[in-house]
Design brief:
- By secondary structure, the protein is α+β, with helices and mostly antiparallel strands.
- Helices cover 28% and strands 32% of the residues.
- It has a six-stranded antiparallel sheet with strand order 1-2-3-4-6-5.
Length: 114
Amino acid sequence: MAYDEDLAERIREIVHSEPGLTEKRMFGGLAFLINGHLAASASSQGGMLLRVDPAETAALVERPGAARFEMRGRKMNGWLRVDATALETDDQLESWVTRGVTYARSLPAKDARR
């Protein structure tokens, strides 16, 4: 399944003016990176993959539509899958994307040559 291009465009509208922004195909979706760190991604599995502060993961998965991202059977702190139903309004999407951008921005910039 291809990623949701409409969702990708909605994310792009939110992050378009962020310094250090790049777009990259990752995990079958379209990722939006800040200084080399994934902030949010329109997922090929529907909804969005989001990077968040690992210390906030437990509280965030209590929100409707949010779950820990699972890779190879392991649920990851600091990574969320946000269901499309929790991204229907612009305010919902902006709230999640802003959280991802804020966390990505808090990390040291990655070497641009990577």
